[in-house]
Hints:
CATH superfamily of the largest domain: MFS general substrate transporter like domains
Strand order of the largest sheet: 1-3-2
GO cellular component, one term: membrane
InterPro entries: MFS_dom, MFS_sugar_transport-like, MFS_trans_sf, Myo-inositol_Transporter, Sugar/inositol_transpt, Sugar_transporter_CS
Radius of gyration: 25 Å
Subcellular location: Membrane
Largest sheet: 3 strands, mixed
Number of domains: 2
Structural class: mainly alpha
CATH topology of the largest domain: Growth Hormone, Chain: A
Oligomer: single chain
Helix content: 55-70%
Strand content: under 5%
Shape: globular
Number of strands: 5
Membrane topology: Multi-pass membrane protein
Mean pLDDT: 77
Distance between the termini: 19 Å
Domain Major facilitator superfamily (MFS) profile: 46-536
Amino acid sequence: MTETNSTPLPASPQQSEPSPPPSTSCDDATNPTDYKPAPSPVLYLLTLCASIGGFLFGYDTGVISGALVLLQSPQGFALSDLQSEAVVASAVGGAIAGAALSGIGNDKFGRRQVILASSALFTVGAGLMAVAGSFLELIAGRLIVGVGIGCASTTIPLYIAEASPPQIRGRLVSLNSALITGGQFFASVLDALLADTEGGWRYMLGLAVIPAIVQFAGFLALPESPRHLASKGREDEARAALRKIRGDQEIDAELEHIKAELQGSKLEESNVWEELRSPPVVRALSLGCFLQCLQQLCGINTVMYYGATIIQMAGFTDPTTAIWLSALVSFSNFIFTFVGIYLVERAGRRLLTLGSLAGVFLTLVALGGSFFVAEIESVEVKGTGACAGISTCFDCVASAACGYCSSMEANLCMPGDAASPSLGFCTSPEWTFDSCPNDSNGASWAILVALFTYLAFFASGMGCMPWTINAEIYPLRVRSFALSVSTSVNWVSNLLVSFTFLSTINALAPYGAFWLYAVIALFGLAYLWRELPETKGLELEDIQRIFADRVKYSALSDKSTKNGHIQEAKGISVC
């Protein structure tokens, strides 16, 4: 993530005794003292407090699924489909803006100030949604919360990475991803618990105020990133911040390491736009943006935003049952994130990402296949009006303009939408746009198992590795800007997938949509197999050598980092 110097790389965390550094280096500069600080209680407190922003990120993206059900009812705001999409889109649009603006804020004001601002935005936005008296006030609250999400998603991984020793950096950054999924799971359970409560959507959207206030209060006592302070020439403040984070440990060697990195940056100082066009940064930024884009194009937020709807489409027609099953699926996303945290410093970033992506591909194929079987087993219907020609309930509910209606006389597919159903039989509770009765539950359970397994594979690697890798691979002089660009790519991709999902289902059927995501995952797997380097156990400064030396680390062996420095990759001697 920061610019390299000639420091020998630290020993792998699995190694009981670090090997002595090599006598030669790829660079001509003198190697500073090899120093690997131990984690302190303050570091863990800092990580936990920062990761509350991840929890808020997950909570506010996950809670909307259940809240929309209540907001669409007459007891809420009776939102139309277009208004419902606007409620979701406003937060995603705000996140895109927040991610872009945070790059400027991180450089000008510091990481700590941006996190404090995001906490304040979460508090104001959640409070406004809780007391919203109109659709526009609700949109305003979602927009404010979205800006907070964008700021947090960009800055928190950066702040944690810059405060962490290399041997546990990946694990600590991944904790933020764990709390994102934890927030999503908590939100899904809360949705189910409050589904039958009068005004339940206000509690769902407003309870985010509590963790936001806790984070704001905690960060009043936490220091700024020492690297940011040193980059602004505030050496005494950087020393004090590093002392606070490291406790009683010796910090002179680490501070000298940071200063050496900054000095190297000054020697090559250039306009940020010129630097972004340099080949090493272009390679790093291309990889970072590809990872963030791929994370979303694998279809993850179709499951998070439309989980209950997908489960209803699978044949679990009762809304309460679907919401609780959606919470079970979200639990898979949460619990398997900890598998990724456990493996990130053992298996490494590369193996974990590729293994996760392979599992995502296979489960998306299985998910599409299960939906295909469900369609074959679907109830036959008689299409009427604009829905004439539709022969199964499954195809009927997949069409945006049609709904399934069962009656004593016939199973019908009739024109209409959820807000204004056609007159006749379909004004009764049997009218549905989301699900079909299924005489055989085999395909339904297969879909549920595939969803659970899909999230297990995704959460263990692709859920957290794009954030972890992006927090490591950029030089200091463009780090904040590059990270905000890659995070914005994530949010734009999120917006693209989230608001084409229903249209994609309408055009390709559910099985076609999930097979499309599987093809994208397979393409991503092939690309990353060639381009993704291993960064496990490396100093932030040393990771830059990978990109600067134009070395392809497609199959970096364990030997590459085992002795504390890069030795070989694809048979090419590097350092």
